[in-house]
C-alpha cells in the first residue's frame, strides 16, 4: 500500500531517510526510495546525503558538535540539501502524498529558507 505521508528523517544506522508517517502507522516504518518509485538519480542523492550525515555526525560525537568552521558549514549545507531533497521527493511522489521534513509540514518551507545547525536562519 502506498503511503499517504512520507517524512524525511535521519538517525544513526537508518537504511533510509524516508519514513512512512501515514495515519495508522506505528513506530518507524522506513521506506526504500526505489520501491516508492523515486528515480534512480533521486535515490542516489538520498543515499549520498545519508552517508555524508553519518560521517559528519560521527565526527560530532567524537569531538563535540561542530568543532570547526568547515564542519559547521558542512552541517548547514546538509540542512539545505535535505530541504531540497524533500522538495524533490514531493515533486516525484505527487500531490497525493504529503511530504514532511523531520515530521513537520514541508508546505510553506521554501528552498531559500532553512534552519542552520546553530539554530539561526540561513540566507
Task: Give an overview of the whole structure.
This protein is an alpha+beta fold. The protein has one domain. Helix content is 40%, strand content 12%. It has 2 helices and 5 strands; from the N terminus they run E-E-E-H-H-E-E. Helix 1 runs antiparallel to helix 2. The longest helix is centred in the middle third of the chain and has 25 residues.
Low-confidence segments, given as residue ranges, are: 112-123
Query: Based on DSSP secondary structure assignment, what is the total number of beta strands?
Result: 5
Query: How are the strands ordered across the major sheet?
Result: 3-2-1-4-5
* Number of contiguous helices: 2
Helix/strand order, N-terminal first: EEEHHEE
Q: What is the C-alpha radius of gyration, as a whole number of Å?
A: 15 Å
Largest sheet: 5 strands, mixed
Features:
123 residues; alpha+beta; five-stranded mixed sheet; 2 helices; 12% strand; disordered C terminus
Question: Could you outline the blueprint of secondary structure elements for this entry?
Answer:
Blueprint: E1 5-8, E2 18-20, E3 29-30, H1 40-63, H2 69-93, E4 98-101, E5 104-105
Please provide a brief summary of the model.
This protein is an alpha+beta fold. It contains two helices and five strands. A hairpin with a 2-residue loop joins strand 4 and strand 5.
Amino acid at each position: 500500500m502506498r503511503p499517504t505521508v512520507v517524512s524525511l528523517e535521519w538517525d544513526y544506522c537508518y537504511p533510509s531517510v524516508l519514513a512512512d508517517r501515514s495515519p495508522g502507522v506505528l513506530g518507524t516504518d522506513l521506506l526504500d526510495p526505489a520501491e516508492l518509485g523515486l528515480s534512480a538519480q533521486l535515490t542516489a542523492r538520498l543515499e549520498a546525503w545519508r552517508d555524508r550525515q553519518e560521517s559528519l555526525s560521527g565526527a560530532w560525537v567524537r569531538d563535540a558538535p561542530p568543532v570547526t568552521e568547515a564542519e559547521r558549514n558542512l552541517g548547514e549545507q546538509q540542512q539545505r540539501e535535505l530541504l531540497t531533497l524533500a522538495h524533490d521527493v514531493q515533486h516525484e511522489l505527487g500531490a497525493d502524498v504529503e511530504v514532511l521534513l523531520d515530521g513537520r509540514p514541508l508546505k510553506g518551507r521554501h528552498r531559500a529558507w532553512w534552519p542552520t545547525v546553530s539554530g539561526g536562519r540561513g540566507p
